[in-house]
Amino acid sequence: MGIDIHPLRPDEVTAAGEATAAAYREFVPPDDPGGWEDYLVRVADVGARAERALVVVAEEDGKILGTVTVELEDRIVGGHPREPLAPGEAHVRMLGVTPDARRRGVARMLMDACIDAARRAGKRRITLGTTERMDGARRLYEAMGFRRGPDQVFDDGFRLLTYELAL
Question: What's this model's pTM, rounded to 2 decimal places?
Answer without folding.
Answer: 0.90
